[in-house]
Design goal:
2% strand; two-stranded antiparallel ribbon; mainly alpha; disordered C terminus; elongated
Length: 181
């Protein structure tokens, strides 16, 4: 017989549910921004190729913008949405052979440790982006590109991923039902 749900448990579940819903909205917004970055990248690369071959007038600034800014944003802004929607490879042969309580404990420990590690990476990258902004660091070229605009996507994307991993570590596991189905 299961113990009755206390008001505290219900409150915690409600808090986790509301946090998950809010995080899902932010993840969806970031995924849309990543899609815009992908579309912009495709348009710029195509325009550069056309300008280069038809008019011998390439968009000389396009490569740095695409490579150092748009592709970084594309990857990092979509990463947490991709994780949440199952867009990753899971090696779970051993986990499936374990009893459910043990596999759940291992999964939660892995999520917690990963979340803490990604949190540290997010903090370090935020500090670097802030320093680059304070020092007005630039990548010199035809356009002087601010370095912080390339680095700002790391703490945003990694911070969201850390929140998702830590939330999944303490929430009822969605993936557990799929793993043992």
């Amino acid at each position: 017989m299961a113990a009755p749900e206390t008001a505290r448990d219900g409150g915690l579940r409600a808090l986790l549910s509301h946090t998950d819903q809010a995080l899902c909205k932010v993840e969806a917004g970031c995924a849309i921004l990543a899609g815009v970055a992908a579309l912009t990248t495709m348009v710029l690369v195509s325009a550069d190729a056309l300008m280069r071959h038809l008019f011998s007038a390439p968009l000389t600034w396009q490569l740095v913008l695409t490579e150092d800014y748009l592709l970084v944003a594309l990857l990092l802004l979509a990463m947490t949405w991709g994780y949440r929607s199952g867009g990753f490879i899971r090696l779970d042969m051993l986990v499936n052979a374990l009893p459910i309580f043990l596999s759940t404990a291992l999964l939660r420990a892995g999520l917690l440790l990963s979340g803490l590690y990604i949190t540290k990476l997010a903090m370090l990258s935020a500090a670097y982006a802030l320093k680059a902004w304070q020092r007005s660091d630039v990548v010199m070229g035809i356009v002087d590109w601010p370095v912080w605009l390339s680095w700002v996507w790391l703490p945003v994307g990694l911070g969201l991923l850390a929140l998702r991993l830590l939330l999944d570590a303490v929430s009822p596991l969605r993936a557990q039902a799929e793993t043992h189905a």
